[in-house]
Design goal:
9 helices, six-stranded mixed β-sheet, about 20% strand, globular
Length: about 375
């Protein structure tokens, strides 16, 4: 009997090593994806977009992760991809002001428009936490609106349902300036749902879904896209609510032979980089997202000390679950634990002649060090056609 113990131990060790090291995502994989991305983005009927939680400017335990270090990597990311629209999450106004000093002049920023003070004024500190950047060479901004995802959506700074933060929805209507798609409307929504309260996330998603439905009635022939950090994953409450109005670009891309994607399982990595994607990390992520989906409070950052873990566990068991296990589980087979999504409307209405099809949806700027954020960006390239 004892002679089998070493064999079992070796097998166990080999399994752990494999789970720790796979799946691999290499620099070669990233380079190949970027080359293909650049190629298809040039198509006359393509619209390249991005959603990106660029992380707020705050003190970091690793100085290489501070915003003053990351800003150069973010600038390089934007210049190499050249998206027409980027949905940003978390930046303070000062961060965007700093970033704009590096970016090309044709990239414009929109957030909550107070019609008073410039971007650097202290009163505007949080006005761009769901800001959007758009390429004015390709798009003309026709209209913008802004909602607070609370019981009083038109009251600035309002929040409800035990939401940890003030959560908002930024809306922009663009027209394409020239080319075969000239005159086409693009309606973009950008949001960042609450990190702590599942109840708040579901209510916030419901408000956003209702607003989207109203815009769809107003502009039945438009291209609709939604960007965001939803602090939940496919299969959970917010995703089910929002996909009642829009389609998940990654899901549809994965089902199409003509659409390119990459099998990268996570977007929030918490400064762990590619390690967050390995098989060994996925059960931990599934448990964390399930607990959050149940309505229990989990830490919104990875604890670094024993005392932080102790406080996190105390908060976790401080109250009973609000929702059932079945409605809280991430979607099987747990190979896409993304909190950052791109949603779209593939056919604006039964009467519409506009058809939107993803040709690429992928996690990009994947690194093991020298990160642009604690989230990896998600990019999409959509082909717009006519029936």
């Amino acid at each position: 009997m004892n002679c089998h113990v070493p064999i079992v131990s070796v097998i166990f060790l080999v399994c752990v090593v494999l789970l720790y090291n796979f799946p691999r995502y290499t620099d070669h994989d990233e380079a190949a994806l970027r080359a293909h991305l650049t190629n298809i983005s040039r198509d006359a009927t393509s619209i390249p977009v991005m959603t990106f939680n660029m992380r707020l400017d705050c003190e970091e335990s690793d100085l290489s992760n501070h915003y003053t270090k990351r800003i150069h990597r973010i600038n390089e990311l934007f210049r190499s991809f050249e998206p027409w629209v980027v949905g940003l999450q978390e930046p303070f106004a000062g961060q965007l002001l700093h970033l704009q000093s590096y970016l090309p002049k044709h990239l414009n920023v929109i957030g909550y428009n107070r019609n008073e003070h410039d971007l650097g004024h202290p009163s505007r500190h949080n006005d761009f936490q769901v800001g959007m950047i758009y390429d004015a060479r390709h798009l003309h901004l026709e209209e913008q609106d802004y909602y607070w995802l609370s019981e009083t959506p038109r009251i600035p700074e309002s929040k409800s349902w035990n939401s940890m933060g003030i959560r908002t929805l930024n809306i922009a209507r663009f027209t394409i300036r020239e080319g075969v798609l000239a005159g086409t409307h693009i309606i973009a929504f950008n949001t960042h749902l609450d990190v702590r309260s599942e109840e708040a996330r579901r209510h916030q998603a419901s408000i956003a879904a209702d607003i989207i439905s109203r815009w769809k009635v107003l502009y039945p022939h438009a291209v609709f896209m939604m960007f965001g950090d939803f602090n939940s994953v496919p299969g959970q409450g917010a995703h089910r609510i929002l996909t009642s109005q829009l389609s998940d670009a990654w899901t549809n891309c994965s089902l199409s032979h003509s659409c390119t994607t990459n099998a990268f399982g996570t977007t929030f990595h918490g400064w762990l980089g590619t390690f967050a994607n390995v098989y060994l990390a996925r059960p931990l992520q599934v448990v964390a997202f399930t607990l959050s989906g149940l309505g229990l409070e989990i830490p919104h950052a990875i604890p670094q000390q024993a005392s932080q873990w102790a406080r996190a566990l105390a908060r976790l068991f401080a109250k009973a679950p609000q929702y059932s296990l079945l409605e809280s589980l991430p979607a099987w087979p747990y190979n896409r634990l993304h909190v950052d999504w791109i949603l779209y409307h593939h056919e604006s209405s039964p009467e519409s002649s506009t058809v939107v099809v993803p040709s690429l949806v992928a996690v990009i700027d994947v690194r093991s060090t020298n990160f642009s954020s604690d989230h990896f960006p998600v990019v999409g390239v959509f082909t717009v056609g006519r029936k």
